[in-house]
User: What shape does this take?
Amino acid sequence: MLEEKAGIIAGEIWRALNGNAGMTQKQLKKAIKCVDKDLFLGLGWLLREGKILTSEVEGELYISLK
Assistant: This one.
């Protein structure tokens, strides 16, 4: 069940990031309307698949598609 949820959230994250340069963790969380633990579940999925890049900008997590 958790694996299915991770895949669904990963899809939502990908759609939110598609077509823009990237987002901060806060912007992405607001865009897909989720809590931190779900956001990180989806981000982990996408990181493992090599679909996203992450960096730290001014102390905040920044996420973009590869």
